[in-house]
Amino acid sequence: MILSMTGFGKAVKVINNKKITAEVKSLNSKQLDLSVRVPQGYRALELDLRNMVAHKLNRGKVDLYVFCEPIEGAASVSINLSVLKQYKAQLQDMATELGISEPEDWYATLLRLPDALKSDVNVSEVSDEEMEAVKEVVAEALDGLVAFRVTLNILQRKNRSHSRFAQQRRTLRALACGENQGAHLRVASETRRRDCGQQPL
User: Fold this and answer.
1) Is the distance from CB of 20 to CB of 42 less than 8 angstroms?
2) What span, in angstroms and rounded, lies between the C-alpha atoms of 14 and 61?
3) Four-residue CA torsion sign, 125, 131, 133, 136
4) Distant-in-sequence, close-in-space partners of 96: CB < 8 Å, separation ≥ 6
5) What is the pTM of this model?
6) What are residue 18's DSSP bridge partners?
7) What backbone torsions phi and psi does residue 99 show, to the nearest 5 degrees?
8) Is-contact 24 145, C-beta < 8 A?
């Protein structure tokens, strides 16, 4: 069964006072075009995560985002202004260099980037247990995306079947109307011939 390549999956896991979130989305593409964004502390996992995505998804333009933030109440959180300033300057330089427009919503753009927030919980310190948790949460997000694709594919097939059925009904109705019209014309013609004293055909 050919599946739609459009999909979305998300999963969350809490470990060591950290909330790990994985989001994966895909759009139509003939080949696998993968983009991965992970916090600095998870850079060592990037190749493993890419392999996981490639094993699960054959095609599509895929974006994988992994976020790590302290759970509410576990630590004080503040915006990492120095990092965000660097991000903004680089994005502005990129927009100028490539001749593209700057983001309309700087807040949403910057705060989604790795290390945009800092807290008392050191998110850069990563244990082996946490590394495994990252893999698990990405696997769950991928499963969610695949389930989304399957559901979307089923709905598309139902819609196509409904459209074909509706077209067949319209065709049959048109044929029936055409036959009825032909029958009425034959009856009217024979009636006229009889009224004129001619032999019916």
Assistant:
1) no
2) 28
3) positive
4) none
5) 0.56
6) 15, 70
7) 70, 35
8) yes
